[in-house]
Design brief:
The radius of gyration is 16 Å and the shape is globular. Helix 2 crosses helix 3. It contains six helices and nine strands; from the N terminus they run E-E-H-E-E-E-H-E-H-E-H-E-H-E-H. The longest helix is centred in the middle third of the chain and has 20 residues. The chain is α/β, with parallel strands linked by helices and about 220 residues long. The strands form two sheets. The protein has a seven-stranded mixed beta sheet with strand order 1-3-2-6-7-8-9, with helices on both faces. Strands 4-5 form a two-stranded antiparallel ribbon. This is Putative esterase. GO terms for molecular function: hydrolase activity.
Amino acid sequence: MDTVLECVETVVGQGEPQWSVVWLHGLGADGHDFAPIVPELRRAGWPTVRFVFPHAPVRPVTINGGMRMRAWYDIAHVDLANRADEVGVQESIAQAEALIAREVARGVPESRIVLAGFSQGGAVTLALGVRRERPLAGLVALSTYLPAPERAKAECPRDTVKPPVFMAHGLGDPVVPYLAGELSAEVLRECGFAVEWHAYPMMHAVMPQELSDLSDWFEARFRAA
């Protein structure tokens, strides 16, 4: 197994984790960014879940004047068509796969692992999920987009089971335009994914109603297992 990234981890429930959620943060943040939302998501009766929040590597980001910060890939252009550094995306996919493999080694099967991400982390989540031969329990993509959608569609395995997807976006998002999220969801549907789409009156952020809807989605996954 490849060396895994440093992570913040939170286990909710009693006993050994039965499920894992690997959550990728956005540009310039770190693994601590989304750890505080776990109590807001958690509901009584859930199985024991390990939440894994990795720290992205530190790298120069072109669009920010070459400043070094935690990022899953470089961003060279504002326009989405050329925004994601393909090499960086592939490196981050491999790092996310290493985290998934570690959860399997710790006793949680892939069928009970959810990969989640916000913004840049969501882009990696979708880029990985659309190409994966073996399905995870689900994908969560918040305020994000699918990089290189036509290439991703061409590389999507056609005869495999597709995991359910939760996507959410702010109607006034100035960072990742709302339409980009909608178009990404449509590409996923064309690839055979069942996408649950949510729109909220917010910008590039997360809001309480979104977390409540996401909690409903998680509960449905746990009940279906």
